[in-house]
Specification:
Layout lengths: L2 H13 L5 H18 L5 H18 L4 H15 L6 H34 L3 E6 L3 H10 L3 E6 L7 H10 L3 E5 L4 H7 L2 E4 L3 E2 L5 E4 L2 H10 L4 E4 L38 E4 L6 E3 L5
Parallel strand pairs: 1-2, 1-4, 2-3, 4-7, 7-9
Antiparallel strand pairs: 5-6, 6-8
Helix pairs in contact: 1-2, 1-3, 2-3, 2-4, 2-5, 3-4, 4-5, 5-6, 8-9
Length: about 280
Amino acid sequence: MSPDAFETEAAAIAADRATGAADLARRALAALAESARAAPADDVGGLRALLERRAYRLADSRPSMAPMATLPRRFLQALGAEEARDLAQLRARAAEIAESLIERSRGAAGEAAAAAARRIGPGRTVATLSDSSTVRRALAHLAPDVRVIVGEARPLCEGAALASHLAGEGIEVALVTDAQLALAMTEADAALIGADALTLRGDTVNKVGSHLLALAAAAAAKPFFVVAESFKRWPADAPAPVFEEMDPAELGHRLDAAVRQRNVYFETVPAALITEIVTEESV
C-alpha cells in the first residue's frame, strides 16, 4: 500500500460515522496487512518502522473506540516477537498476523453475540440504539422469535439501517426517536447495546443516547446488557478515551451564530447501570 493509498484509507476510517468500532478496527488491520505486503521498504528495519508508524496513525484516528487502540497494538506486539531473517519473510508474517487478528476479532464477536442471545432468550422484546454489528448477530440468533424497538441514534440515524436489516430478517421491529426510549423500555423486556469501548472501571463507551437508555431500563426495572468482544477493553497503556465531537452541521439546524451547537457522538454508561457486559468469555 503506497503512502498516498494508506493516507486515503486512514482518512476514510477517521471520517466514517456509520461503521462500528470493531468493523473499523478490522478495516485498519486489513490496511496494515496490505501495507506489510506492498509498502515501500528497503530492509527489515525499515518495514518494522513503517508498520509501527502506520499502526499508531490508525489507532489515533478514532480516540473513542477501544478496538482501534487494542488491535493495532496487539499487531505490533506480535510483530515485535517475530525474528524474520529477510524482508520477504517479514512481509509475509506481518500480513499473516494482521489477518489472524481480523479472524480472531470476528470469531470473538460471534461468540459474544451468541452468549447475549442466551441471556435474553426467545419471545422477548428488546430495546436497542444505533447499529451495532454484534447486536445484529445477537438478534439473528433469536430471529424470528423476538421483537425489537430501535432508537434512531441521531444525528445520522444509523438505527434506521438496523431496523431495515432486522425487518429483512423477518423480525418485528419498530423505529423510534431517541426521545421515546424511556417509553420503549416500558414495553421492552430488556435493553441491549454494543460498545465502542469497555473501560477498566467497568463502564461502557457507546453512542450518545446509551446512558439515557440505561437510565430508562433502570427506572423500568429491566435488565440492561452490553455485548462486545473482549478486544473492546480499553488498554491500560493507551490514552484515556476522548469523546469525539463532530460537525454541528449534521444536526440540521440553521440557527443564529450566537447559538452554540454541539454534536458529541459518544458517552459513558456507568457500570452501576449495566446488568452485564457479555463477551466471548461469558459462559
